[in-house]
Amino acid sequence: MAIRLALLSNAGGSGKTTLAVHLAYLLGNAGFSVALVDLDPQGSCSLMGGLPRPHPDQTIAAVLQDDFQGNWPTTPLWSDEVKNVVAVQGEMGLVKTINELVLHERGAYLLGDRLSDYPLPQDILIFDCPATLGPLPLIALSACTHLLVPIQVEPKSADGAGKLIEWFYHNSRRLRLKPEPQILGFVPNQYDKTIAIHRNILASLEPQLSKLSIHCFQAIRFSSEFKNASALGLPIHLYRPLHPACKDFTPIVTKITQLLKKSKSS
Amino acid sequence: MSKKPQIDLSNLFSGAEYSQEVHALETKITELQAEIEQLRSVGSQQVETKVQELRSTLTSGGVIDISVEQIDPNPDQPRQTFSPESINGMMVSLASDGQQEPIILIEQPDGRYLLFDGERRWRAALQLQWGTIKAVIIPCPEALHRRVLLANLHRENLNPLDMAEALIKEIAQTSNLNEQDIPRILRTAVRRLERQGKTNQISEIVVVSPESQQEVLAELELNSSEKSVLSVLLSLQLNPASINTNIFPMLGLAADLKQAMRTQGLGGIQAIAVQRCNAKALGIKEAEAKKVRAKLVKRILQEKLSVAKTRALVSSEISSYQKEQAKGSTPSRATSMIRQVQEIAIDNMEQQELEALKVALASKLHEIESMLSPQ
Ligand SMILES: Nc1ncnc2c1ncn2[C@@H]1O[C@H](COP(=O)(O)OP(=O)(O)O)[C@@H](O)[C@H]1O
Ligand SMILES: [Mg+2]
Cβ–Cβ contacts within 10 Å for residue B316, how many? Predict the structure, then answer.
């Protein structure tokens, strides 16, 4: 089975979309085929991936409709640079989906159902989720094999992270997920080592996570180039290939690459 | 030199830690359960060791006395037949030595229990007409969730804000009420019960059985939303009146104060006191009021001020701002008049007198308004 990685956090602006888009590019560049699935009604993957707004019936919302017949609406990303990365776009129509999911008898499992009825061929699927832990993150949780949690080094986000872990265990149990998704790790983001409170929080976050046996990846530094790159719909690696922040993603990519190799060989 | 605020995240993660523990425990229980069933189906001798392991795992959740009437044999398990002699043997052993080991039961959402292990002891206990039997429990998922919540709610270091949020979530989940409406529903109910002098009836049922709680609730004049809110709180052994006064008000705190509670350990009652320093009370902009609050919080934490001292500090802060505003005016004449008006004893007045007073006050109010309105 493909690796299905859900990016979740309990706060807006923590870097879910940024991380999703960058991993899609980096894994594609490493030779894997990737589908970036945007479960956020804001559709920010399109923006950060340089795609025009999708036609409403060419989005993930259409996939989640009962009459879906397997024609996944995929659009190539950065096709001049990488050959095997596609997006399944999201948009406002997903708001309606949220209400439908609540009523649907398989609501919480709908994305997983679609993927087992009509599998996507890619090596890895990346689910970008909205910030509120509602029905959409829930379908990502029940469909994913792994979880990655970006977290801003601010007290408020740390609080959200604790709640997210509770949410994770509560729902894994409630939905009886077997096998249970693995938390790949937390990714501190927008980290500025010159700011005392950032150092402070990072230093106390790591032992907290390790007590829970949750891995904490190397932090991704703060750089305004992330915003500049995303305004052009590019990952920072294409916008400023030599920028030091490019290297901050390496441990995550290495980890996922190992998983992909393992799942291919088995 | 002022000390930097220390960040302590451990409080933020204790709930996560607890739910992980419960989760690990549940996974282990489920695995053992499956293994035992598998071993039983092939008639393996190793069943007993696994049952032993399961029993000791479950014992950490406590050995409790369960009414024998509440137990059903497990329909999913192969029917075991016990000869009258073997039941008799067990009866003798139970009667003379007591019950050596707890039986294992699976908790059902309806409050009854299915036998997982110990059918012979249970049958013997029935025949001995024992009222209860010692058991360890495999919790159902709903009960596990409850257990996490309960343990969290009664955790010592849980701050009232987290408690409020957890309760709101729980009530919303079990009742389909909107999260925002819940504090108001509780407030209305508690106020009415207070007016009717019935709050005692509620506090008396905090620790009784759910059935008795329901009986009392049914007799109070509550609408269905109020009833669901109260019964969730009561089922968690919480007093609704005290949740209303001490816990839910935390939800209305300014964001900066919530954060101070969570990350700096500001106490809830202190936070409520500091909350009085809002833009309106101080007559300044909200951004400035926030700075005032930050300054107060810092002092409260550094000097570890008691609730009384905090309140005094806040009052003096507010009055210093109000004096600032009122500079130049001499409020003394108004102050004594206001007091006179406030002290009018209307409790024992006749309808007619009340009407007359109302007319007089209204016309005075009208005069005041026209004096004040800029023309
Ligand atoms: N490491 C970073 N440094 C600076 N800005 C960042 C960084 N990561 C993300 N951002 C910016 O922060 C904002 C929020 O990030 P985004 O990925 O959209 O978060 P989310 O999807 O969790 O809401 C975006 O404008 C993004 O460009
Ligand atoms: Mg996003």
Answer: 10
What residues does B105 pair with on adjacent strands? B115, B137
Nearest to B185 by CA among B239, B136, B128, B240: B240
- Given a cut of 70, whether residue B282 has pLDDT beyond it is yes
Q: Which residues of chain A have pLDDT under 50?
A: none
Point out the residue among B4, B141, B262 whose CB comes nearest to the CB of A155.
B262
- Which residues, including other chains, have CB under 8 Å from residue B177's CB and lie 6 or more apart? B171, B185, B225, B228, B229
Mutation target for A interface from B2, B10, B19, B159: give the one with most A CBs within 10 A: B19
The strands making up A3-7's β-sheet, listed across from edge to edge, are A74-76, A85-88, A34-38, A124-128, A3-7, A146-152, A182-189
State the alpha helices, DSSP H only, in chain B: 10-41, 47-59, 84-97, 119-127, 141-153, 160-175, 182-195, 199-203, 210-219, 224-235, 240-242, 255-264, 268-275, 279-282, 286-302, 307-326, 332-343, 351-372
From the alpha carbon of A220, which atom of ligand 1 is closest?
1
Query: What does the alpha-carbon distance between residue A64 and residue A106 come to, in Å, rounded to a whole number?
Result: 11
- Strands B132-138 and B113-117 come out as unpaired
- What string of DSSP letters covers B114-147? EEEE-HHHHHHHHHTT-SEEEEEEE--HHHHHHH
Q: End-to-end CA distance of chain B: give it in Å, rounded.
A: 54
The pLDDT score that the predictor gives to residue B151 is: 67
pLDDT in tens, B100-156: 999 999 988 777 999 999 989 999 999 999 999 999 998 876 666 666 677 667 666
Q: Among the bound ligands, name the one nearest to the CA of residue A13.
A: 1
Q: Which pLDDT belongs to residue B1?
A: 44
Q: How close, in Å, is residue B139 to chain A by CA atoms?
A: 12
| Residue B145 to residue A201, Cβ atoms within 8 A | no
Predicted confidence (pLDDT) per residue in B211-231, tens digit: 888 899 999 989 999 999 999
Cα dist from B168 to A159, A163, B185, B238, B251, whole Å: 17, 14, 12, 13, 10
Query: What mean pLDDT comes out for the span B293-307?
Result: 93
Question: ipTM score here?
Answer: 0.72
Contacting residues for A87 by C-beta, under 8 A, at least 6 apart: A24, A35, A36, A37, A38, A45, A46, A49, A51, A74, A75, A76, A77
**pLDDT reported for residue B75:** 73
Atom of ligand 1 nearest to the CA of A44: 18
Q: Give the start-end residues of each E strand in chain A.
A: 3-7, 34-38, 74-76, 85-88, 124-128, 146-152, 182-189
CB neighbours of residue A99 within 10 Å: 10
B297-311: average pLDDT:
92
Contact B220, B193 (CB under 8 A): yes
DSSP-assigned states of every residue in B180-249: GGHHHHHHHHHHHHHHTT-HHHHHTTTTS-HHHHHHHHHHS---HHHHHHHHHHHHTT--HHHIIIIIGG
Whether residue B265 lies within 8 A of chain A, CB to CB, comes out as: no
Better-predicted residue by pLDDT, B94 or A134: B94
Report the alpha-carbon distance of residue A142 to residue A178 in Å, rounded.
Answer: 9
